[in-house]
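TICKET: design request
STATUS: open
ATTACHED STRUCTURE:
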């Protein structure tokens, strides 16, 4: 297990032999899921929601800084998961769940 985690976060991740199209779809899924998280969080904060992630709580009130961090995160995650479809699917799926959770909170606030 340690080896799998170490190889995932390696500076030279092992790329699979997948098509460029599949790699682009994985990258787009990550960027879109990050955008969904950014938008739903920003709207929620404006409507009075509270960020429950203690690491991000001080950041989300400054939308420019939050957007910058999301941009950096997207870039890093695309780089790490490039031509690694399982990793891209897992990460974008995780952030999709976060976005859906945020949408549920927005539904309660409206």
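STATUS: resolved
RESOLUTION: sequence designed for all positions
ATTACHED SEQUENCE:
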């Amino acid at each position: 297990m340690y080896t799998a985690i170490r190889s995932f976060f390696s500076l030279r991740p092992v790329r699979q032999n997948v098509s460029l199209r599949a790699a682009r779809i994985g990258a787009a899924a990550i960027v879109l899921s990050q955008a969904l998280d950014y938008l739903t969080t920003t709207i929620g904060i404006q409507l009075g929601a509270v960020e429950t992630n203690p690491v991000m709580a001080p950041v989300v009130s400054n939308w420019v800084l939050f957007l910058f961090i999301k941009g950096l995160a997207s870039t890093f995650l695309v780089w790490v998961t490039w031509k690694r479809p399982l990793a891209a699917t897992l990460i974008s799926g995780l952030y999709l769940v976060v976005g859906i959770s945020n949408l549920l909170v927005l539904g309660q606030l409206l």
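CLOSING REMARK: The chain has a mean pLDDT of 90. DSSP finds five helices and no strands in the chain.
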